[in-house]
Amino acid sequence: MAAEYSPLGVWAAIVALGALTFGIRGSFIHLFGRIENVPDRAMNALRFVPPAVFAALTVPAFVAPEGSIAVVGNERLVAGLVAAAVTWYLDDVFATIVAGMATLWILRFGV
Amino acid sequence: MSRFRLPAEIRRGVRDVAPLLIGIAPFGLVAGAAAVDAGLTPLQAVGLSVVVFAGASQLAAIDLFGSNAELLVVVLTGVVINLRMLMYSASIAPHFRVLRSAWKSICAYVLTDQAYALSIARYTDAEAELDPRERRHYYLAVGVSLWIVWQCCTILGIAVGARVPDSWGLAFAVPLVFLSLLIPVITTRPKAIAAVVGGSVAVAGDVFAVPLDLGLVIGGLAGVLAGVLADEWLATSAQESDLGGGH
Questions:
Q1: Which has the closest alpha carbon to B17: B178, B140, B183?
Q2: b/e A76-98 (16+ beta carbons within 10 angstroms → b)
Q3: CB-closest option in B83, B93, B198 to A29
C-alpha cells in the first residue's frame, strides 16, 4: 500500500510523469524543421525499448515475486507460463489476463 | 433538409480504431483496479490516467506506488517506458508540420502506439492522398476514441477494483498485461536478446536489492544496449557471410 506517500507527493509524481511524457510526445511534432535530422542510431536504439522494458517489468514479477528467485511452489511462475502460452497462441490481452488470473486462483484456492 | 454528417476521415478513423478499442478495454480496467489496489485514491487514479494517458507507464507507476518505491524512480521508470514515443513523434511530425501550434499540442497529447500505427498506415496508403486537414481528422478520430474508451475503462476499473478482496491478488494482472505486450514485440533475434537481458538484469536488481528499485530502469537500459549491440553484430556477421558466399 502506498501509505507512506503524502498526497502532494503522489500528485507531484503524476504531474511530473505527465509533463515529461507530453514533452516526449511533442518533441519532434513541435520541433520539426528546427532540427536538421534525427540521428539514425538513436532511432534504432528506441526500437529496443519495448522488448527490454516490458521484459524488465514482467520477468521479476514471475520469477522472483518475493525478491528472491523462486521456482518450486511459485504459483506466479506457473500462472505466468500459462499466460505466456495463451498470449503466444491467441495474442489477446483479455484472454491472457483471464488465463493468468484463473491459474493463480486455482493454485491458491483449489478447485 | 440536409442531415449533419461527420467528415469522411473522422468516420474512417473511428471505424478503423473500433477493433483496437476492444483490445485496450481490459488493459484500462486493470489500470483502474490496480491503482486503487496500490493505495491511490480514486481521484489520484483518474488523475494519473488523464494526465499521463499512456497505459504501460501508468501500470508501471501504479506497481511502484504499490511497493512504496521512491517517487523519483516512479517518474524515471515511466519516462523510460515512454521513450519509444520519441520514435513515433519523429516519424509522424512531417504530417503535422502545417498544423497550428495548439493542434500540434493536442495531437502530441493523444499520441499512443495505436494512434501512431493506424495513422502512419493511413497516410502512407497511396490511394488515400489526404490533405493536411483530412490527416488531422483521421488522427484525432483515432486518438480521441482511444482516449475516451481508456478513461471510461479506467474509471470502471477503479469502481470495480475497490470491491475486490485482497486475496484475489488483483495486482498480478499488471505483469500479465505487460506479458501480453512483451511477447508480440519480440519479432527479431536482437529484440529477443534485448528482452532476455532486460529481464535478467531486472531480476538481478531485485535479488541483490539494488537501492531505489533502480533495477527496473537499469534492466531496461541494459536491454536496449544489448539489443543495439546484437543488432550491429548480427548485421555485420550477415554482411561478412554474404561476402564470403560471393567468392
A1: B140
A2: bbbbbebbbebbeeeebbbbbbb
A3: B93
- Is a pLDDT exceeding 50 seen at residue B247? no
| All three cell numbers of B106 | 493536442
CA distance B128 to chain A (A): 22
Of A2, A23, A20, the closest CA to residue B38 belongs to A2
Does the structure show a pLDDT above 60 at B245?
Answer: no
CA B61 to CA B74: how far, in whole Å?
A: 5
Tell me if B44 and A10 make a contact (CB, 8 A cut-off).
yes
Contact B194/A at CB under 8 A: yes
Q: How many residues does chain A have?
A: 111
Contact B180, A97 (CB under 8 A): yes
**pTM of this structure:** 0.83
Give residue B23's pLDDT. 82
Helix (H, G, I), strand (E, B), or coil: what is residue B130? coil
Number of other residues whose CB lies within 10 A of the CB of residue B167: 9
Out of A18, A50, A80, the one facing B185 most closely (by C-beta) is: A50
Q: Is B54 left (phi over 0), alpha (psi -120 to 50) or beta?
A: beta
Which of B191-226 are b and which e, b meaning 16 or more Cβ less than 10 Å from the residue's Cβ?
bbbbbbbbbbbbbbbbeeebeebbbbbbbbbbbbbb
Which has the closest alpha carbon to B92: B127, B27, B142, B23?
B142
Cross-chain Cβ contact B176/A2 below 8 Å: no
Q: How far apart are CA B5 and CA A110, in angstroms?
A: 55
Task: For residue range B92-144, list pLDDT tens digits in order.
Answer: 998 999 999 999 999 999 999 899 989 988 998 877 789 999 999 999 999 99
How many residues are listed for chain B in this entry? 247
Task: For residues B53 and B55, give the distance between their C-alpha atoms in angstroms, rounded to a whole number.
Answer: 6
Enumerate the residues of chain B whose CB falls inside 8 A of the CB of residue A14. 44, 47-48, 51-52, 61
